[in-house]
Amino acid sequence: MHRLALSCFVIFGCNATYAQNADNSTDYPRNYDPTQLYSSVNVAAGLNRPDEKFILGSHPDGLWYKGELSWQFDLSGKVRLSEHFQVDFSLPGSNNEDRNALSVFDNASIDAKYLIHINSETYNSTLVHVGMTSPIVGDPLLGTASLVDAAPLSYELRAGYMGGIRLSSSISLYPSFELYQREVLQHKAVHFTDSSYLPPNEKQTGIRFGMLSSLQINPRLFVQVSLKGQCGNMSYSNGDFVQYFNSLNESSRSWSSGIKLAYFLTRNSQLFLSLNYEHQVLSSERHANDIERRISQLNVGYQYFVF
Cβ atoms within 10 A of the Cβ of 204, count? Predict the structure, then answer.
C-alpha cells in the first residue's frame, strides 16, 4: 500500500511541475474550498484494512486481530440546484467483513446543503447541511445487541455546520460541527429450537467536530489535511434484555486524520489521491476499552465537473 501511495504521489508531482508552464489563467473550479457549491460526478476506488482489539478473559489488556486487506469503491456526486442550495449523494461499497449482506451499498448517503453567505473577507463562508445515511456499516458500537438473522433496519440522521476562514490567498481553514443520531430498528424476533430472542432497538446520539486545512499550491493543484473527532452514547428500547444493555452505559469515541492531493487534468476533470486513518473505541461499565478499531484507507479517484 505504501509503495502504491508513493507511486501516485510521484505521478502527481511530475504533472504539477509540467503544469507550471501551462496557462494558469484558466478558471478552474474552486473545490479546494469545501463550502463551494457546484455540480460534479466522482468515481473512487481503493484499499482498506481494519484491525480490531477485543477484551478477553485470558487477555485482560486486549488482543489485536489484523483484518484482511479489502477493496472499496464510491460513486458519488453533487448537484447544484441554485446559488445557495446543493444536494450531495454517495453510494459506497466494499468486500470487507463489515459490509451489509442485504445491501449492494454500504453507508449510502444523501445530504442537502445551504450556503448562507460567501465573500472575500477573512470569515468568508458559512454552510449548513442536513443528511441521512442507510444502512450503517462499520460502527463498532451499533449492532452489539443484534443478530444477523434479525435483519434490522439501520440509519443515521444528522445536521451540521461548516465555516471558512481565509488566512491568505492560498491557505484556508474550515472548522465543522455536527449533531447526529444513529438507530438500529428491529422488526422480527430470532427463533431457536426452544426459545426466541427479540433484539432491542439501538440508538446512538452524539457530536462530531473537525478541522480541515486547504493549501492551493497553484490553480491546478491543492492539498487538504483533515482532523476529525466523534463522541456518542448508546440507549436501548423495545426488546429483550433492555435493562441489561442500558446498564452497560456504553459510549464510543473516535478520531481520524487524512490527507488529499488533487490535480486538475483539464478545466472539467480532476484526479485525486487520499490517505486516511481512523481509530475507534467502544467503552462500557465493564471495561474502559471493550473494542478498539484501527482503519487505514487508500483511495484514488476521478472527478468530473458539470458546473
Answer: 21
Grouping H, G, I as helix, E, B as strand and the rest as coil, residue 58 is coil
Q: Which three cell numbers stand for residue 233?
A: 452514547
74 contacts 41 by C-beta, under 8 angstroms: no
What is the residue type of 27? D
**Length of the chain, in residues:** 307
Q: What is the DSSP letter of 69?
A: P
- Identify the bridge partners of residue 292 per DSSP, sorted by sequence position: 53, 281
Instruction: Kindly report, residue by residue over 223-279, the tens digit of the pLDDT.
Output: 999 999 999 999 999 888 888 888 888 888 899 999 999 999 999 999 999 999 999
Closest CA to 96 of 85, 88, 107: 107
Mean of pLDDT values over 11-40: 70
Residue 273 gets the label, from left (phi > 0), alpha (psi -120 to 50) or beta, of beta
Distances in whole angstroms, Cα of residue 190 to Cα of each of 149, 151, 187, 200: 6, 10, 10, 12
Nearest residue to 154 via CA among 102, 206, 94: 102
Would you say 127 and 161 are in contact if contact means Cβ atoms under 8 Å apart? yes
Extract the C-alpha cell encoding 69.
486487506
Cell numbers describing residue 92? 459506497
In angstroms, rounded to a whole number, what is the distance separating the alpha carbons of residues 231 and 87?
26
Q: Establish whether the linkage from the previous residue to 135 is cis, with ω within 30° of 0.
A: yes
Q: How many CB atoms lie within 10 A of CB 26?
A: 11
Supply the pTM of this predicted model: 0.84
